[in-house]
Inverse folding.
């Protein structure tokens, strides 16, 4: 999930430690099993490259939702916090800097395995569409062949050269 707030760092690098908490409206106690991860850049004492400058990127967290039936069809509020460490270009060098980024997102969860059903439906839909296109091509080709067989044989008539000379 992308945060509303951006991070500005040298070459867009950061190392994020993520904390994720989740609750539902009907059960405000914290849910168990939600995990998150973010970018895990590493750098040493020097950073070099063709273009070394601060770049603005969207802060993001990849959240893993537990596969439990109790969460099916529920609205879950996910609070994410990233304690980020990142290099910040300053005066031709860089300083290691830290900042905290927070974001809240509400998710409406499907039943367990809903993603698999969605993916399978999409895949079968694509295969069905490809099969229909193939069949339509065969029908079109057969129709064109039938029209060619029914068509009159073209005859080409050339003007008689002698008649053209007489008229002039």
């Amino acid at each position: 999930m992308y945060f509303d707030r951006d991070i500005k760092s040298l070459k867009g690098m950061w190392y994020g430690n993520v904390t994720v908490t989740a609750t539902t409206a009907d059960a405000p106690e914290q849910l168990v099993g939600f995990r998150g991860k973010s970018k895990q850049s590493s750098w040493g004492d020097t950073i070099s490259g063709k273009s070394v400058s601060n770049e603005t990127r969207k802060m993001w967290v990849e959240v893993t939702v537990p596969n439990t039936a109790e969460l099916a069809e529920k609205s879950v509020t996910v609070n994410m916090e990233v304690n980020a460490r990142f290099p910040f270009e300053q005066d031709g060098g860089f300083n290691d800097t830290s900042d905290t980024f927070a974001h809240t997102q509400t998710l409406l969860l499907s039943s367990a395995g809903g993603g698999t059903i969605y993916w399978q439906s999409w895949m079968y839909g694509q295969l069905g569409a490809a099969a229909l296109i193939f069949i339509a091509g065969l029908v079109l080709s057969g129709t064109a062949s039938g029209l060619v067989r029914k068509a009159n044989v073209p005859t080409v008539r050339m003007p008689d050269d002698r008649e053209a000379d007489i008229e002039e």
